[in-house]
Amino acid sequence: MIRSFRTTAVLLVGALLVAACQAPGTGVPAPTSAPTGAAPTQAGTAAPKPTPNFAGKPINIVTGGTGGVYIVYGAGLANLLSSKLGVAATAQSTNASVTNMQLVRDKKADLAFTLSDTAFDAVKGNAQFKDAPAKDAVALAVLYNNFTHVVTKDGTGITKVADLKGKRVSVGAAASGTEVIANRVLEAAGLAQADLQVQKLGVADSATALKDGRVDAFFWSGGLPTAAIVDLANTPGLKVRVLDHSDLVKKMADKYGAFYFTATIPAAAYKLDGDAKVSGTANLLVADRGMDEALVRAILATMFDGTADLEKVHAEAKNLTLKSAVDGSPIDYHPGAIAYFKEKGVWNK
């Protein structure tokens, strides 16, 4: 059953990434401009604006690493935009949030998945963005919530975050949102990276290292379920534990902002002995403020019209609703997004 799960997951992501990287050359319905031979308008009446044509327009979507949600969701989004909107969308694997915000800042990405705390730091010029903020980054939508997993297994003697002192711990890939949150969870527990034997691995490599006994625990900020942890939980003879750290959330929120809140990972997600209360953070889809407003509206319309397709890609897409999309972003929204949500009657800011 484990091999079947892994094979199915790999085939799904692979198929989506292949589809996402292929621009729809022909046969894809796309918006077209008004015909040049249209009847003249009445005197004093403004001619209607032609519908923009986005056919073949490159859209680079930066996501995350293997084993996480971003890469799967992002590949599905790229495929949806390519097939329904007619753009040439591709999904690029990255180290996730911090790297993604840097790519948006440097005009090397069109759309980016990112954690809300990292987006806030990027726009405000905090932390890693102190010398080069991403001032023009804006939100298109809140997508779903991330859950901070602090994962270990039976036999490590680790039952709380404070027990990580002196242990071999992966704090997430370098320049990832996971590493940012890991540092803040550790800080709230009175620890720092210097107190650990630190490794910086993505979720797939972290899970493999825990299974092989090369780390004692790892941090991961992701949606539910995260494939790499499901795979780990299905390993014969291995019992996964996710550490409750709800007692640290208030300290994190008080110091860094209200984008940290208490969330619950249900026991069924990873065959846990009980639910785990952890820190949660919203995920955003962001772009540069200079992106064409009509394109932003078209992207959002395609996403919300195609939610059923996205839900087939990953369960977290079920959390994308018009109401939730406008609730929880600590950064400004793109003017095109505001116009779209006003049309839908959900913009109340």
Q: What is the average of the pLDDT values?
A: 89
Largest sheet: 10 strands, mixed
Unreliable spans are 1-13, 15-45
Q: What's the CATH topology label of the largest domain?
A: D-Maltodextrin-Binding Protein, domain 2
Domains, number? 2
Tally of separate helices: 12
- Approximately how much helix is present in the residues? 25-40%
Overall CATH architecture of the largest domain: 3-Layer(aba) Sandwich
Written as H for each helix and E for each strand, in order along the chain, the element string is HEHEHEHEEHEHEHEHEEHHHH
Whole-Å distance between the termini? 48 Å
Task: Give a quick summary of the entry.
With 349 residues, the chain is of the alpha/beta class. The chain has helices at residues 2-20, 69-85, 97-105, 116-124, 177-188, 203-212, 227-233, 249-256, 293-305, 307-313, 322-325, 335-343; strands at 58-62, 88-92, 111-115, 137-153, 168-170, 197-199, 217-222, 240-242, 261-265, 276-288.
Based on the model shown, name its key terms:
alpha/beta, D-Maltodextrin-Binding Protein, domain 2, globular, 2 domains, 12 helices, 10-stranded mixed β-sheet, single chain, disordered N terminus, 36% helix
